Amino acid sequence: MHLGLRGRQEHVTMLWGDLELRKTNGTDGRQYLEFTERATKTRKGLNDEPRMFKPKLWEEKDDPHCPVKMYLLYKENRPTVDPESRFYLQVNRYWQTKGNWFNTCPMGKDSLGTIAKALSESADFSGKHTNHSGRKTFISNLLDKGVPPREVAQISGHKNLQSLNHYHSLSIERQQELSEILHAPQKKDTPGTSETNFRTDEIDDSELVN
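Below the sequence we write its predicted structure tokens.
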């Protein structure tokens, strides 16, 4: 979700070298993962919407599901860390007796296409979920928390800010807040002090915007 990948195909073509472990400067530097979709021998062109900033996943030291910890665990149990090897590998069904947790063969597009559905069902989520759902959640969560649309577009790769509207909808919590605003008693303004002192009897029909 943190990377905002566009769908199944970007997961299929994702390579191990696309995700790099880095660290901020200073003695107490914090580790993070940085995503860069690189042009390689087998992947000549980049996507049509280059990102102004490379998406990053920061370590959360007190979280057992820290993305950096998960990355290092995955790295330790992969049979290869060749930068041009596929990021998603097939599970080794005999890992208990034959070493690595994963095989050298990449996961197929059909298997990758069902991951989001399987995870949402195991978590008892409602509704339909696909690989693109992660990108929608990535964008809508940032917008819900008040992150300016321009900043969201810079890391999502969107060229048009209007296209973000497709991903964003009012949460049930926000809808409740709006309802409470409308339900609350309206403060009566002293005549002549209201910032928006409308007089409907003075409005000409020609001034109305259709």
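Residues 133-144 form the longest helix (12 residues).
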